[in-house]
């Protein structure tokens, strides 16, 4: 039930009025920086001006412009943002809090996923703030610039006339963290206990932020869900992509006035053409992502982390068993994949000497799990580990080796959707975390509800104490030298070094950057 009782809070920019719903104070559409439109397009986020009076904060703000991702309409659980207001002026955040008091609650700072090209901080599972209410935590969700608006390097090709490094989307996230530091105490939150949590590109963003000097000290723990440190472009590749993108408009970077004059729709159309071209030529999902530019991101994030850039940040990170099963299984080009096609595709991704052993080990492992070990299954499982699981383990191991507690999980619960063919797909664990179960997608009943409680309560304990052990799930040990991992399934349990044969395949293989599939 909603209440007509006013929910007014004073921030450093002025007063905001939200509303009360289900026992929570809710504030939507809060601007955390000046909107990056007009002359501010492609620039780092700027300070938002203060306002007088009381600003309404009862509706979501505009989300970053985006195209509909291919196949999204056919993927269960995939949010549909096509009907939401889109605008380049999208730097808004939302807050769900149990109280406007001085309780100093942990702050879960949620960064949405979407391959750096789709998504928003308005995901349906955030509605009603179930996790905030259950865990006595403050939830903050954000929008940030995506695609060509937030991750296109223009500095080199324009000779510095447009100084975009390709990391403006990350800088937006840092600006939102600054807003939290300055204002969250008024919302009952603790600015000294901020948990950067995110899924997919959101978790990959966090992986980058762990190595970004400008983000240091702005968050204290992370919950990386299906994303690590490896989704970054090297500068030369980023410049090459930008050059190809500008050619679509018959531009070369010299005419910055013409570049700035491109409309939002033109940029989205060009981005869609680039996406299609890259999928066909390189199997890549997105042309734009964070860039190791030597400035915002001075080095590959994993290298910075190994050197101690985030030494005091406690990491909780994990993956789903079948991250890429949905994308490989629903790709028409993959449906009739044979052995020759498998080897050809792997040659684009892996060193030649790694391929035979990888195929052998993964096929044997899949057969032990009950799979027939088809080329499609082998491709999807190797791709999942290369893109997600192994880089996640490298992050956890780096923090472990720095003497910082780190925790690992593996979500193996399978969706009942589409006859169960999706398995433990990418993103299936998010509704469990936020208490937003859908009988068709997540399943329902005592087993699903019990798993949801275990996931929620362990993350709540982690937010409060830096340790996910709790009554619901039991003792959750640190990853450590024995690779202790929490398996999240109907029978949640701790295992020592699960899926070890597959992990060993990658020993000695560097994961500084792995472009999205």
Entry summary:
Helices cover 32% and strands 17% of the residues.
Structure description:
The protein is built from 15 helices and 15 strands. The protein has 517 residues and is an alpha/beta fold. It has 2 domains: 305 residues, Rossmann fold (3-Layer(aba) Sandwich), CATH 3.40.50; 192 residues, Rossmann fold, CATH 3.40.50.1820. Strands 1, 2, 3, 4, 5, 6, 7, 8, 9, 12, 13, 14 and 15 form a 13-stranded mixed sheet that branches. Strands 10-11 form a two-stranded parallel sheet. Helix 10 packs parallel to helix 12. It is globular and about 65 Å long. The mean pLDDT is 93.
List keywords for this structure.
single chain, 517 residues, alpha/beta, Rossmann fold, 2 domains, 13-stranded mixed sheet, two-stranded parallel ribbon, 15 helices
Percent range for helical residues? 25-40%
The H-and-E topology, N to C, reads as EEEEEEHEHHEHEEHHHEHEHHHHEHHEEH
What distance lies between the first and last C-alpha atoms, to the nearest angstrom? 43 Å
Class from helix and strand fractions? alpha/beta
Largest sheet: 13 strands, mixed
Could you name the ranges where pLDDT drops below 50 across 5 or more consecutive residues?
none
> Which whole number gives the mean pLDDT?
93
The H-level CATH homologous superfamily of the largest domain, spelled out, is: Alpha/Beta hydrolase fold, catalytic domain
Query: What is the quaternary state of this protein?
Result: single chain
Query: What's the architecture of the largest domain in CATH terms?
Result: 3-Layer(aba) Sandwich
